[in-house]
Amino acid sequence: MSIDFVLPETPPEELRFRRRISVVNSARELWQAREFTLALFERSLRARYKQAFLGFAWAIIPPLIFMVVLSLFVQHAVKIPTHGVPYPLFSYVALVPWTFFSSAVSGGGTSIVTSLDVMNKMYVPREVFPISTIMSNGVDALISLVGLGILFGVYGFAPKPTTVWVPLLFTIQMMFTLGVVFILSALVVYLRDLRYAMSLIIQVGLFATPILYGIDRIPSSLQLIYSLINPLGPVIDGYRRVVILGLAPEWGLLLPAAVMSSMYLVAGFRIFKRLETGFADIA
Asked: Coil, strand, or helix at residue 9?
């Protein structure tokens, strides 16, 4: 008499591996790896500007060129309302945070696949690679503020007292940026075509975000939905309001954007930690 054994299609419940994600433990590991993160950050800056003749001036050149192009062509063709603010200043205030976001997404999204040689040689929390890339792009954003200071001097403007809201706006932008970068950097390892699609996504985002125009150009009935889909919109609008218009942020749009940005961050971190166990295997 023969006995047939039927293997189950899936492993029993008690044998399934479930990785527990602890924010506290991850934060502790990240803090312990802070020196390595700073070393990656420094290496990224050195590699970017080591053999560049203009050096750190390249942090100012891209937003300035965009500002000139927008001022010469877009503003003259469309006549975008700027509430009495010169259009070069109106556009540059938005281009600085956008350039930071787009550069962070472009560099951070590929930070894992470009660092596999380091990851395979030593263990560090994998999130240090996208974080260090974002930090280096943050330095570029700070340097690009020199151009903003020049424009203030040229047009006789000065930052308004409501500029005190900038740290809050930057915090919301950082949550959104980190969330997006965590998601993309993990997915690019498994979907290599995504690294080529990112440049297209960023180009579309330039026009889908109120940089060339103000958020008031979006119909009021759609602004809340838009803010939930693209939290960067109310943030960039907030920079304009507090720095050059002397107005408080539009709380009805900014608060939902802040909630959505925190959700992006939490979801992005969880996706990253779920997928990081296969980074070395897939690569």
From this structure: coil
